[in-house]
Design goal:
By secondary structure, this protein is an alpha+beta fold. The protein has one domain. The chain has 2 helices and 3 strands. It has a 3-stranded antiparallel β-sheet. α1 runs antiparallel to α2.
């Protein structure tokens, strides 16, 4: 791999590390609307094969969605970092 490409990938990894550090609170799960008559907002997450629900009401929906979005951004960043690190490792470009 060209030295310039290696340097570019390492710089991108550094940018991704900073983005990870800048992410706020995160939670795995989703905001769901449940109910047949009066629908209510809940946060739903599956832990050890069991679905857990937390009642949100209207006041905490925005924050719960933000936390869930942060988790998804976290996964996207890690995925990109994994690809870049695999390419660098393959070329033994860490030395």
């Amino acid at each position: 791999m060209e030295k310039e490409k290696i340097t570019k990938k390492k710089r991108r990894i550094d940018v991704l590390r900073r983005r990870l550090g800048a992410l706020g609170p995160m939670m795995r799960g989703s905001v769901v609307l449940i109910g047949s008559g009066k629908k209510q907002f809940y946060f739903s997450v599956n832990i050890k094969g069991k679905t857990n629900l937390i009642y949100l009401g209207k006041d905490r929906v925005k924050r719960a969605r933000e936390y869930s979005a942060n988790y998804k951004k976290h996964l996207e960043i890690i995925e990109e970092m994994t690809i870049l690190n695999m390419e660098l490792l393959k070329e033994d470009a860490f030395s």
